[in-house]
From TrEMBL:
Biased amino acid composition, Low complexity: 789-799
Localization terms from the record: Cell membrane
Protein name per the record: Neural cell adhesion molecule 1a
Any one Gene Ontology cellular component term annotated for this protein: neuron projection
Residues covered by region (Disordered): 760-840
PANTHER family listed in its UniProt record: CTX-RELATED TYPE I TRANSMEMBRANE PROTEIN, NEURAL CELL ADHESION MOLECULE 1
Amino acid sequence: MVFLPSDSSFWSAFSNQAAIQVEITPTQGEISVGESKFFLCEVVGDAKDIDWYAPSGEKILPNRPDIFVSRSDETTSTLTIYHANVDSAGIYKCVAKNGDKEAQATVQVKIFQKITFESAPSPQEFSEGDDAEIVCDVISSPPPTLIWKHKGSKIQFAKDVRFKILDNGHLQIRSIKKTDEGMYNCEARVMARGEIDFRMIKVVVNVLPTIRARQSEVNATADVGSSALLACDADGFPEPTVTWAHNNVVLETGDKYSLNEDGSELVIKDVAKVDEGEYTCIAKNKAGEKAEEVSLNVFVQPKITYLNNQTAAEFDEQVTLTCEASGDPTPTISWSFENRVFAEGQQSLDRNIVVRSHARVSSLTLKNVQFTYAGQYLCTAGNSIGQDDQHMYLEVRYSPKIQGPVATYTWEGNAANISCEVEAHPGASVLWFRDGLQLPSANMTNTKIYNTPTASHLEVTPDSQYEFGSYNCTATNAMGTESKEFLLIQADVPSSPEIQGVEPFSSTAVVVFGEPDSMGGVPIIRYRVEWRLPGQQWTGREYDADDATSRITIAGLKPETTYEVKMSAINGKGESESCPASTFKTEPVLGEPSAPKLEVKVQKGGNSLKVNWIKQDDGGSPIMYYLVRYKARHASHWKPEIRIPNASEYVVLSGLDWNTEYEVHVVAVNQQGKSEPGTVSFRTATEPTTVPDAVDGGSGLGTGAIVGILIVVFFLLLVGVDVTCYFLNKCGLLMCIAVNFCGKAGPGAKSKDIEEGKAAFTKDESKEPIVEVRTEEEPVPNQEGGGPTEPNETTPLTEPDGKTVKDDSTKGETEVKNATAEVKTVPSEAPQANGNESKA
């Protein structure tokens, strides 16, 4: 806007233009607050003085700080307004004088405020849910019009009532959300000047932390060196910091506590009972803080704190055992003695044993004390965490108690021990008497006394009827004395056993019998069994007796033949009379033997098995040999058949595959033919893992030494095989040298069959393992079965004079009689012969 001189100034200048004229440049006088501007007053004509006057009418003096007047030459003067403010507005006048001549001009100066943002900070932060007020303080003259924009668009206040422009121009957002976050544009406009300006304000919405404990309660055990982990997960914006407090003390990483990087996990080391309580997890950010409590429950394993040994005397009114224990939860205390357990409130049927508990103390009261109460008592304190056991000993002092069998049986010339077993505390001294006289005495020189800590034994060797009768044992200690009479009774021979039945077979028979009604006072030690053809002499044999003996096998009988059999029992006194003879008839020859019964036993190593067999009915003809064959269950072909001597009772199969199911068949062969195969299946063990030798501290051989030893062994093995081939089969390197260089034919191979019990090898073209057979002398047990199974023939036969009877078919085979054969398979690449052929 341009301001012209007022009418009075114009006409004054016009009337005096012949003399002096004044003109102010620029003619416009608009200044923005804070800006500076100058005005030039030019005079036409001679002027001695040129002065400027403020709107107040005061003459503006030179060198004012805000308004400066300077005269450049005789015709011009400059008015400069520095950093204008609203007080600088008004009409300024320039007056030129020369004597009585005067001229003036005025200019009206207007001061305006351009758009100015006094306060529009960025970013501005608020908490979610608060009524946010976004500050944008802007001034101008005239006052500006404010427009708010968000995400590039003008905010539609009518559509979202949460948004509102306050009287001061600030933008209010009620219950601000995280989605309201972003850049806001505060735009100011002055329509009169077409002026516009804006500020971008970043609005950040902080979210109050949320916090969640992973476990509201954590259990730990004290005094076992364990740690407890307390954890909480916090969320919010900005990401909150997490701290832990206990008893209003903030916890920090150290010897007792450790925190992970974000503070969400607190580890309490070496938990003790004092660590129990509430722990506060605190999450804090700019929006505020939240806290969550986590309870640490510290349990304590039971520990028995008091338990002492006690002493009482028999027949005391009562004795009380006390056991105290600590722990959390409070432990339950129980007592046990031998195989009996006593808990709170329990008592024995006779009401002599009562248990009472209070808090952490339990008492076991024993009324009317008996000597049997003495011994070790166990106090057990247990809770959900564990238990503690401790023993105490109750010592009961009591007078002697004499025990032991009253009657002892013997016979003249046979020493017998009469045992007086004494229980006493303190220990008792024991004396023996006969007819009031202390033993040993001059009248009874055939007695001896042997004492042990718990018994006294009187050894009597009677040589007449006088030594049989009553003997007195008297025991004495500080608590009292007790006596007891013992009887030494003349023993008798047993009564006859009763034959209950005979189970005949073709060449054997099983005699089933019941023990004698009277043992004669002493145990049966043997049974005598005698059998014969009617009208001929008896053949007998004695068999050792035990508690389970009720079946005895007799062998060497003829098929389809009638026999008589009788029995007698033998004890230390002598032999009973024979029971009445029973008659039976053997079965006819059945032909082939029955299938052997097989049993398997794993040998040391895991891939070796011992297969035992029990011979059944031989069919009336002696077993000549056994045929053994086996194979892996998944294999289609059997291993080469192995022939085992008739006296052998087992075979050992070695070098088997690990963790493999095998099937074994054993066939018994007599002159009539072969039995059905006895079969058994088994699985070998899993191959053990090889444990490497220790690296340090060992004294094992080096790899080079081991390789050298293996080479030497392999060389010696080759030499041994070559020598064997030379002498046995007329082949090999030595044979080649002998024939080609010495002109000698090797020694002939032995053609006779292998002697039973010696080494034999079975070979075939399938490169199957070499089988080694060897025999071992073993006693042959008497077979006792529960059914009509044919007994074996390993029981020696006896003639009437008691000598062993040998079957003709076994002549020449005494080397393998009662021997067992062991067969081991060894993997080999050597060529093998076919079938059941063998070479020695």
